[in-house]
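In the present case, backbone shapes were mapped to integers, as reproduced here:
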Amino acid sequence: MEDETLVKMVGITKIFPNVIANDSVNFELKFGEIHGLLGENGAGKTTLMNILYGVYKPDQGEIYIEGKPVHIKSPKDAIRLGVGMVSQFPELVENMSVAENLAPLFPDKILRRKRIDEIHRVAEEYGLPIDAEAMVYNLSLGEKQRIEVLKALIRRVKILILDEPTTVLAPNEVNALFKAIRKMKDEGRGIIFVSHKLPEVLEITDRITVLRKGRAVATVNTKETNEEELANLMVGRVVVRKHVREKTILGEEVLRVEDLYVLNDKGGLAVKGLSFSVRKGEIFGIAGVSGNGQKELIEALTGLRRVDKGRIVIGGSELTSPPQFRRVASHIPDDRVRMGILPSLSVLENLTLTSYRRFSKFGLLKSNELEQYAKNLVEKYSVIAPSLKAPTWQLSGGNLARLILARETSADCSLIVAVHPTFGLDVASTEETWKLLLELKKKAAVILVSEDLEEILQLSDRIGVMYKGELIDILESEEAEAEKIGLMMGGVKVD
């Protein structure tokens, strides 16, 4: 065992019913190293990291930390050994403040004010600012991820697992996170960076391990590889990320927003006087740093939040309730677990939540037809699940995304509201989702909310940039540039 080795996983095997998640995987992390972990959805990345974090026990294999064999039976064991993990879906109590969520990390005798001061100190030291007194339910997904990183920093972890940490971050937020990661590296900590964004993996990591179908197929030095090689290692074929956006003939106006004002949960204005329209045949992209009113706007558009002033008109009728929205539109939410599925229900039940009525007659479900419909969706969208009867909580984050995409885009609707639709998806699945959205605009109007500038630029016919609840500008695709949009996301008006 080399002195520079912080973590060594040898011959790790984990088998679930009908699935070999990890097949004799070897993985190594050095002190002061940022090690990228790549692979398609279902390749075994999250399972391997959950084994290191004590969520699962390996069926075979050994784990060494600083040269000593360890038996990690629970996350409590992992934390004791200096392992921290920031998962795709933040594990926070929504109706508590940031400080209250982080309180268990401090000794009981420390006063609340001192806890808040320490949280702010650590946040400032690593360039990850957060309001410790803010309620979690008011925060964006990106801000919630920041809290999870702060958890690990307050615990002074030696080994930090970051699972898709940049998916919902704007460029300036990604830069801030990368500065924090590099500071941790300089302090001698080991960071495992799990991501599907190949440019970011190439920018931030020292080495990269690629998993495919549960096996480690390669470990390469980052300086000696490129996007094409990594994509090929991940999926076994060349992946095309550039798509020609065909100009479609614009149809009727599907959505019209008039002088819209929406309040946030604190009663302050989150959306301020927005007006825009979207027609069949176009993708209207909405760009902006998280926390600038996108959440409240989408909740208003989908009928989940009351409009304070103004009008939302869908298909010629003013929106007044969620059921009215569901009759004519589909919604792909960013928070898939809380808003997109019912975890305890089966894969079949979640796939057919919005379509079961078409398979019923005289109040009775046509079970065989319903099951065949679900099977077709699973096959078409490559949803990997133990079975149609398996509870949906058993699915990986990427497969949850595929399930929701399958359900929502298969519905007969005139408007599709897609919020971070490729969050947590691998490069191949992202490619397929982009193709799907470009195809869907031929039959519907599409609103795309994303903080991934590449995604916005690749797919959108028009782009609206939000800052502090207002639309800074609406750009045609021909005049939209990453630099220009990036400045607008920071509140700078560009001529």
